[in-house]
Amino acid sequence: MSFWSKIFKRSAELVPVIQMQPDADQTSLADCCLRDTRRSANYFRNLLCIVRYNIVTTLKERDKNMRRKNLEELNAANFALSQALFTMSDVWYSMGRSTDKGWQDFFRDYFTYFTETIPHTFMYRDALAILSLAVLLDIEPHYFKQTSEKIRSAGKSDKLLDFLIYSKYPEHPVSEELMISVSDRQVIDDIIDSQDENAVDSLKCYLENHYYTPENLGDAYDAHLRDDNAYQGYWAWEIAAVVKIKQLNDKELRDNPYYPAAMMPNTDGYIPTELNSC
Questions:
Q1: Of 10, 64, 106, 195, which has the maximum CB count within 10 A?
Q2: Residues 115 and 156 sit within 8 Å (Cβ to Cβ)
Q3: Residue 74 sits in which domain range?
Q4: What is the pLDDT of residues 75-121, one digit of tens each?
């Protein structure tokens, strides 16, 4: 998330066709499709264009560094492109997009950048979002096998990450270690180890008391209050992934503003065609 935060301002200057308008003037039919009303449809449309521009620019730089065999810069490009997995997903979901083949194909195409990044630059929150989204988007097990091999080789272990990988690739071991703060230890244990109503209670506790905090979200905390283009949504992908894996009744979670309810079975989302292009 930090990579995109640093370049959003510069990118906006380099894309003159994207003009941000005052919130009061942002009225369009697309507003009815928004899942995140902290910002307007116009804001998310502009943000989507900026992110796409950054991706194209980074891909070009990556190709140059591959030819030059500049491994340090190549790793940096892989890291940036891996972040596009959850950045694009955050923006698409905030805008109201349904999970469709295009979204899944994008995830498959860019997933390798994530696995290649693991030995060099491993960010826990990034990995948690990416693996959770992979579960929600029904990405095939061999992608989780690749992740398992890279994470184990790098000596990384975390109970929640391991649980996500294990759900699609059962040969992956589930550790008792946690990479997050000790204060969240019991609630994470309860989320993974409990069943049915107890698990839902733990998930609800996590959403209400542990998710939207500076300790958990880092630089993204209160991003919607800033005047840059760094805000993309506060979606708790990991909670929805656990619900899906455990096949829980999420009725008690659906009113929480951070829970991506439309990603779950038997719900629907919609995005107008014009929001799929810049």
A1: 106
A2: no
A3: 2-18+37-266
A4: 999 999 999 999 999 999 999 998 889 999 999 999 999 999 999 99
